[in-house]
TrEMBL record, chains A, B, C, D:
It comes from the Bacteria. InterPro entries: Gfo/Idh/MocA-like_OxRdtase_N (IPR000683), Gfo/Idh/MocA_oxidrdct_glycsds (IPR050463), GFO_IDH_MocA-like_dom (IPR055170), NAD(P)-bd_dom_sf (IPR036291). Coiled coil: none annotated. This is Gfo/Idh/MocA family oxidoreductase.
Length: 406, 406, 406, 406
């Protein structure tokens, strides 16, 4: 049913996985590890060995629910286990560097959620650790999952095949609205020391990575504005949703009010190494837009447009068509010949958010089995981190054009 | 994260499941049974005990891949197992009646894929068996999974709440295009004795059930036309896709060509017990439409529109709004307050095809645990079967208006 | 700017027009006659000579507002005028036959609004008169204006060019909602003796014609259901909108309540001479759908889809495309190479409802100047009338399959 | 049929109009002047007196085609005519200031196409002339026609009514693709001394004006990048389309190649006086986007979204709705209660590009008759000019944040 490589499923070696963190990202990663082997012909058999978390009761319950054999409150234990070959880091950004570097040094492959770190310095250390580990055959990957939404993987293929010609414009937005209400509590994602930045690093990082992935080019410089619309919020936890956990104890004042120390929104202009102009916007204040990651590329031979709120569709304008029959076509990316989708359901039976993570797991298992460097690499993650830093630097300096380091 | 009932997850009884069939439907049901317990707070813990299939090697491989503990080539073995409480029938329609009736008589709960059977007579026998079983606390459910696409569950809620007023029109279509090419082989779904009917029973059944589910009314009569556009096809199997298996040995002639004995398309008019006019269309010849199950309801107070090719969206026109601001609104059905979706991801992170089956599994486990009759029942499946029969009768009698029996 | 034929604009002969009726259709026809010469290179110069109406004051005011040189209360006067070569009939259906036949016999070219007549007998007489007139070089055209919405003209071209292959399905709907409220008054369009039929003839006629125009085939038989949802309505006029005029004096009872004597909705199945199955729906009870004339064709090589509520777009699926890049493309029909649009604005600057009438006027002037039979002809209008009659006959006879006469 | 003010149509005074320029803008303005009186109840009767152009033969032909009584090659003649009260300036931007100032000083009302001028200095002189003329009851209006697309007029009403709450984001783009081909000739719109700027002033001006109009706020500063992708182009005229005329004689070199001296694209960030962040993009290199003027506003209580390629629709998200039924609704802006549309056709019968000009003409006639200052004023046009200048200044100074003067 799929054109993906075939492996004998009997006598495959196991791939022991240990995961750190078990909230939103931990849930979706667990689902990927539980599901991937039923749909793809993998060269290794993933096994969900141990999940690590800070609270013993919560991590034990999570293990039972999410399908992990064991749990622990000490992520370092995972590094000592011979039956664990891969560390999957789903904890918050402030601990990525410490865990990833330790894991790589311990000879464990690493999958690390994005953004790679909270600062370029951390990300550089991680990239160095990944380079050193690669010498020893130990692999590292950063979890920009949207690259593996089939419509976006297809988009990259069309660009790489030259169907867009020279790319002139990139137009990327990631719009959410979950903190429009000023009474929404000060969850950890709104505190700089825990989250690094706000909308910029949380969702802006995704569209920066996508812009580079889809074009195959780098962002060379930016001009930016960031804004915090609501500065004070009540302390507490959100009942549900993204980043429901409360901020840490240092963030509040005695009156139950805390200070937002990250951006609510970031907008920026950029140029790519391929000569395109790009506009970016990341915000949590776009009322009615829930998870509207959208990106459009305009090239000399055609254009592509995508919106995650209709994630199975890719819109493609082929400028080589006669004008009389040209137009953006809605490709429903569910055909056997499309990336990944042949492994799932018949045409027209769409996939959901979590499938991108299952595809990520599939590709990582293949990479580990074949000793190939997985994409996106820690270097890719570092480059995104440098763009984030350049955005903040430009915003702090009257939007002045700021080259991206490296 | 969810408003669904909470259960203590420790000390829950297991619910042993045995499944018959392991192709398309078997794959998606297996995924549902594997996944449901991680996302929903279930009163029982589903266990994937045994899968049955006709070919020993294939069913054994399927068990390994799909997560079943054991496999067998004799579905009757499942009825003898004390550790199996639920039989999940994913085999083709021609064996539904035999398996379901035997299972119910053996005291097993039954989940049976749609259409319930290949004839009304079979369906009636199944409904009688279900009624008898219910007396003994044994439950039966038919697998019209689309009822549990969150957007359609929400649609039913809006209708039941009166938001549409008196329903005047139902407009239902299920469009596919997988046999447009006359060289597509004569797979089993194109042979009457195996599949019962063609597009009518395979996909038309879904929109009949949805029309009744959404309106809360019954279809009282029909006027129909059916057509077979391509009468002869090569024997063989399709490489992939829907109904890839070849037709049985009696279907072909010596020259490698076989006869299509089912409809390629069915169109029909209907009236509902609520006074609405309805139009239905089921076809496998709608080029470019892959799995376009669409349904629209127009009522005196509002309208609803849905297309499975954008399955996370429900379009709602509220006619009580002032005309200046009225219009079909696109509800992205991924909010915590929407049916089922709170158990999954944050708003805007869409679900896919298989989630409807996971929701079905969740509701069935709840029903078994609480001894409640699950919906849709075998009576619901029987009613659909009678509509299918009326469609064929009308088509065979110059489209004459044909009341639906019962 | 246009690929349309060029004429010397100086020394062109005039084409004197006389119009009967000046309400909704009269307004839009007048606009067409006033505008067409500024945008198209016409071989004759249309002149708005006389408008005829029943009420002297109203027709005089209409003449002033709509740009007619003179007005009269006697349409027969138009037939005596040497300076009038074309009679444009915008009066209601019940008088079409009388006026059109008299005009043709008087040697005047005729443009007659649709539906051609209120009965097949009238339409037959009109078609006979048109045939006789044609012998004398006098031309007749029926005003199915939607044929000249550029997107639909383009659709016809694509079908005629074979881009759809063999057509399997036609799916046509015309949905409005202006009488959903049971307090909407009994305007003339709801009375059989004035309007002939209800939604069927008023809007159903358009989609019947379009189905034949686009496919190039004829409708050979139908099976139908019609319904009147609201039987009693208050007498009076509607403040605005479609058919605002009150019904005639014989329609009401002493209590200010009148009886609806036409259908509110009609649904029907059909077959075409090309072997396609077709579904039709015409209703004034589709809440939220304002003027939703939509039609889709599915053929062996491709599909087309159109919705008048986005009238500048034609959706085309080219099934010859590789599956990986196939999909319905949105053609914005505003290119210089598209039908008619080169005469208007640059690409992307959309047209509106009235432009279809301006295009109709343009083509009729060309036909008159060159002595070519204009399309759609009275024969085309007669054929639609026969389909309407077959629909009513089938609905009155248990939806039995009813061949279309002729 | 309309809620607009009613005037007695008899005994109305005439309003003599003289127009300068007769290409694209002249054609659409002429259509507006010819049509407006048939659809709206105007207090004065517009009369198309004289059109002025540079070439005698061409302007004479244009007068005949477009409906003007006379033509001239000297626009100054229009200022001497007592029967002309309004000068409509459709010539290119480089002559706006001279004509407008002379006309205002001659006591003629002025409608001037946008952008108001090619430089802020010219625009300031024009605004001063308008202020002086206003003292004498002589009025001036700048032609930002998109304000009068009904969907955008409705959008302004919803914002003014507070339905969006505090506006946080503006997202405005104007995308075209007519010079993607590097062989497209060097038409006048690509030469700075004739056009002032490129995409920025031609189409960027529209979205700057719309952002201010819709929010009711001013743009206070910008950070910008501009780019010219194709620097050399062949001399010559385009066969059709936007700006078909060749550039003037000084632009080319002996080899038939000329230099593009304006921007092909401009992207910029902005802040509004209301505290919103805004992103803007104007380009002629967005393949497949023909006239994609789109704008979205996100506020604390709701959002609005519009795309001119579907110009009859306004999308409105009401954040006060319960989340379960909230979503962007597609308002088809064709109801009698919508701005302007009651004067045209029944609901669902859409309007086209030129209607915005007809509405502009209607409102200007009302303003002249009542002595009210029309909107947008020359001050509005000046403010746009200052934003354009700030964009160019920022782009020339490393994208540094540049306050908008005034």
């Amino acid at each position: 049913m799929s054109s993906l490589p075939q492996h004998s499923r009997t006598a495959r070696p196991p791939l022991g996985v240990g995961m750190v963190g078990h909230s939103f990202m931990g849930r979706v990663h667990s689902h990927a590890w539980r599901s991937v082997d039923a749909f793809f012909d993998l060269p290794m058999r993933p096994e969900l060995r141990v999940v690590a978390g800070r609270d013993a009761a919560r991590v034990e319950a999570a293990a039972a629910r999410l399908g992990w054999a064991e749990s622990t409150t000490d992520w370092r234990e995972l590094l000592d286990r011979d039956d664990i070959a891969l560390i999957d880091i789903c904890a918050q950004g402030s601990v990525h560097a410490e865990i990833a570097i330790a894991a790589l040094e311990a000879g464990k492959h690493v999958l690390c959620e994005k953004p790679l770190a909270n600062t370029p310095a951390e990300a550089e250390a991680m990239a160095r650790a990944a380079a050193a580990a690669a010498e020893r055959g130990v692999l590292a990957m950063v979890g920009f999952n949207y690259r593996r939404v089939p419509a976006l993987t297809l988009a990259r293929t069309l660009v790489a095949d030259g169907r867009l010609g020279t790319i002139r414009h990139v137009r990327a937005r990631y719009l959410q609205d979950w903190i429009v209400d000023p009474e929404h509590p000060l969850v950890w994602r709104l505190v700089r020391e825990e989250a690094g930045s706000g909308a910029l690093g949380d969702i802006g990082a995704h569209i920066i990575d996508l812009a580079e992935f889809l074009t195959g080019d780098h962002i060379t410089g930016v001009s930016a504005v960031t804004e915090t619309f609501v500065h004070k919020r009540p302390l507490g936890t959100a009942g549900s949703g993204i980043g429901a956990q409360a901020a840490g104890p240092t963030s509040g004042s005695a009156d139950g009010i805390g200070t937002v120390t990250v951006d609510d929104a970031a907008i920026f202009l950029a140029r790519t190494s391929g000569g395109a102009l790009a506009t970016f916007e990341a915000t949590r204040f776009a009322t009615g837009r829930k998870n509207a990651l959208s990106i459009e590329l305009n090239g000399s031979r055609g254009s592509l447009s995508f919106d995650f709120e209709a994630m199975n569709d890719l819109w493609f304008h082929d400028h080589d068509e006669p004008a009389a029959t040209a137009g953006f076509r809605r490709i429903t990316v569910t055909e056997p010949t499309h990336p990944y989708t042949g492994a799932w359901w018949p045409p027209g039976h769409g996939l959901g958010y979590e499938h991108s993570f299952t595809h990520q797991a599939r590709d990582l298992v293949e990479a580990i089995a074949t000793g190939t460097t997985p994409q996106p690499s820690f270097d890719d993650g570092l480059r995104v981190q440098r763009v984030l830093a350049a955005v903040e630097a430009s915003a702090a300096d009257s939007s002045r054009w700021t080259p991206v380091d490296g």
